[in-house]
């Protein structure tokens, strides 16, 4: 019995989260088949076919798949899924949107946001914003899992090419659903969940304009920008900058939290970072309890000084 | 238009939970319980649609132990017209809840079902999508803007890359994200009035569905604790530590 991995991509490249799921998939010690669905998938299919441990790549192409709308994807997946024992996708908004829809049609439970695969039917997942870890097992014949990408290394590219096979598109049963538009946040900086350095700002920044201070440091370090919910709610930055329990989970080498108090919900999204720096004027802010290096003071003096001095350091 | 809103009772978001020492689960004793915050947003959205004259009736439903009725009372105080509690002693898992909700939808015939995108206890983020699948309805998940027109809705979804706008015909399922609205508080007069509103209690047998969980929790543990580090006093010291101790820049 094999494993089906639903790849996330944008028709140009495979989303890095997919490679973390591939690593998770290897833990099952069964043949791994990847499915690529979209409107024009040659390029991304080629890309994934060279990854180690991929035994086969299914490709499903149709205009209706160009925006990855679950309603248009599930009938095909449902047909294919019946031959698999394990179905995996990343717990990104792509996977979270799609996989429960498939699981329900298969009449099986879904195990969300898995961070550890102990064996073929024993999985660890965070609950309560990561304040507890549950080990769960499923009584269903098909195990459907979303995998937290930051919990697994990214799989490596190999040299052998896996066979690619066409799978026919099964038309959706839902009508009257149309894609209107996508407003993408600027792609100038590294993607938040994939960056090795993240500089995040919170309510302490006070305004959208002041976020320029975060941008200056981030651009100098080649970092991605993150934010607390409070900063997003206040409109300082776009929604997809939110780090936390109900936003994105990140685990960079360096996370710099500026003017962020460190609420449980925020910590849930960043406490697996390798090194955490906190800049906050309140010495008792909970963020200091997880920070490796804390500096107490006014961010409006510390941040410009840090950026200026880093500039000199980076030059040398 | 009738709207069905699903609510779950969870440990309040401000509480840091503790794991029971025998690893069997979370310690609930003496802990403050509330409506799942995303469900409050769902109720608020429905109430606003009613205030705009778009919704005619709001039915709040909850599946779970008897204590869920408190959450439903709150939903009524916030503006729902009617409440239905499906009582079960089973741990409520998304697939079973979706099946119960489907049975309620078939009984109530709403045009729109609004749910929270995730419950902040199990953090599953599944129920709305599963319900939509079981009903064969379209889904608008993680929604930060909802526009209801005659026979269709337009939703703006919060996705990893930014925002996505979709149009779908009704009936449909919508799950809320944080930016959809800011929920109101229940006022005292409304809390009093809520006591008079219709409140129905159903046994799981009434709906003819099986709520037995598919997943079994073997154990629950505290995550490894991160050690607090040090406080530095100057920017120079910080840079020195990052360069020479942590070696991350
Ligand atoms: C259902 C739900 C889901 C949530 N999901 C998330 C989530 O995913 N991510 C998330 O982040 N939050 C989330 N939250 C919100 C969370 O509970 C906190 O409210 C939020 O994280 C606070 O953001 P903040 O730290 O920026 O603001 P605050 O808590 O207000 O902290 C601001 C900090 O800035 C400091 N400060 C102010 N001025 C300065 C200055 N001049 N110099 C230095 N420091 C300064 C203050 O000392 C303070 O510590 C969620 C909440 C709920 C209810």
List the helices and strands and how they pair.
The complex is a heterodimer of chains A (316) and B (249).
Chain A: E1 2-6, H1 16-26, E2 32-38, H2 42-49, E3 54-61, H3 70-81, E4 84-90, H4 93-106, E5 110-114, E6 116-119, E7 122-127, E8 132-138, E9 143-147, E10 164-166, E11 177-184, E12 197-201, H5 212-221, E13 224-227, H6 229-233, E14 254-258, H7 264-267, E15 275-280, E16 293-296, H8 299-315
Parallel strand pairs in A: 1-2, 1-4, 2-3, 3-10, 4-9, 5-9, 12-13, 12-14, 14-15, 15-16
Antiparallel strand pairs in A: 6-7, 7-8
Helix pairs in contact in A: 3-4, 5-8
Chain B: E1 2-6, E2 9-11, E3 33-35, H1 37-51, E4 57-64, H2 68-78, E5 82-87, H3 94-108, E6 112-116, H4 127-135, E7 139-148, E8 152-159, E9 162-169, E10 172-176, H5 188-194, E11 199-203, H6 204-207, E12 215-221, E13 230-232, H7 235-245
Parallel strand pairs in B: 1-4, 1-6, 4-5, 5-11, 6-10, 7-10
Antiparallel strand pairs in B: 2-3, 7-8, 8-9
The structure holds flavin-adenine dinucleotide.
Radius of gyration of chain B: 21 Å
Shape of chain B: globular
The CATH class assignment of chain B is: Alpha Beta
Q: What oligomerization state is this entry in? A: heterodimer
**Average residue pLDDT of chain B:** 97
CATH arch. level architecture of the largest domain in chain A: 3-Layer(aba) Sandwich
């Amino acid at each position: 019995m094999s494993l089906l991995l639903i790849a996330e991509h944008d028709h140009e490249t495979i989303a890095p989260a997919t490679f973390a799921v591939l690593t998770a998939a290897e833990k099952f010690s069964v043949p791994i088949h990847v499915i690529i669905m979209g409107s024009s998938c040659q390029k991304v299919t080629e890309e994934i076919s060279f990854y180690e441990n991929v035994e086969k790549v299914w490709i499903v192409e149709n205009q209706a798949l160009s925006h990855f709308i679950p309603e248009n994807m599930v009938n095909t997946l449902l047909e294919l899924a019946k031959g698999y024992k394990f179905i995996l996708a990343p717990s990104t908004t792509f996977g979270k949107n799609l996989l429960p829809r498939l699981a329900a049609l298969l009449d099986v439970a879904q195990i969300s946001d898995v961070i550890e695969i102990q064996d073929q039917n024993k999985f660890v997942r965070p609950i309560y914003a990561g304040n507890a870890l549950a080990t769960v097992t499923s009584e269903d014949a098909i195990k459907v899992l979303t995998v937290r990408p930051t919990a697994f290394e990214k799989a490596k590219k190999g040299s052998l090419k896996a066979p690619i096979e066409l799978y026919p598109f099964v038309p959706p049963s839902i009508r009257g659903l149309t894609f209107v538009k996508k407003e993408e946040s600027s792609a100038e900086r590294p993607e938040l969940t994939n960056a090795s350095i993240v500089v995040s700002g919170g309510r302490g920044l006070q305004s959208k304009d002041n976020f320029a201070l975060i941008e200056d440091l981030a651009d100098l370090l080649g970092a991605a920008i993150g934010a607390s919910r409070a900063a997003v709610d206040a409109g300082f930055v776009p929604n997809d900058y939110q780090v936390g329990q109900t936003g994105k989970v990140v685990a960079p080498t360096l996370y710099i939290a500026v003017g962020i108090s460190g609420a449980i919900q925020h910590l849930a999204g960043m406490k697996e970072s390798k090194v955490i720096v906190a800049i906050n004027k309140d010495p008792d802010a909970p963020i200091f309890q997880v920070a490796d290096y804390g500096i107490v003071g006014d961010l409006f003096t510390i941040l410009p000084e840090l950026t200026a001095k880093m500039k000199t350091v980076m030059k040398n | 238009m009738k709207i069905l809103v699903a609510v779950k009772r969870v440990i309040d978001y401000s509480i840091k939970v503790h794991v029971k020492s025998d690893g069997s689960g979370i310690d609930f004793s003496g802990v403050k319980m509330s409506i799942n915050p995303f469900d409050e947003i769902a109720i608020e959205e429905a109430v606003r649609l009613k205030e705009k004259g778009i919704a005619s009736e709001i039915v709040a439903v909850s599946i779970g132990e008897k204590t869920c009725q408190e959450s439903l009372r709150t939903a009524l105080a916030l503006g729902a017209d009617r409440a239905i509690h499906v009582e079960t002693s089973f741990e409520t898992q998304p697939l079973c809840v979706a099946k119960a909700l489907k049975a309620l939808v078939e009984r109530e015939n709403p045009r729109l079902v609004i749910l929270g995108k995730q419950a902040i206890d199990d953090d599953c983020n599944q129920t709305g999508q599963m319900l939509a699948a079981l009903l064969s309805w379209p889904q608008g998940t993680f929604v930060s803007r909802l526009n209801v027109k005659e026979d269709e809705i337009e939703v703006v979804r919060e996705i990893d890359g930014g925002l996505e706008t979709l149009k779908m015909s009704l009936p449909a399922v919508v799950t809320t994200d944080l930016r959809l609205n800011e929920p109101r508080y229940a006022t005292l007069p409304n809390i009093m009035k809520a006591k008079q509103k219709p409140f129905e209690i159903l046994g799981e047998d009434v709906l003819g569905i099986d709520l037995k969980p598919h997943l079994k929790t073997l154990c629950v543990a505290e995550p490894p604790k991160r050690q607090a580090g040090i406080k530095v006093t100057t920017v120079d010291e910080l840079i020195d530590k990052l360069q020479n101790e942590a070696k991350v820049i």
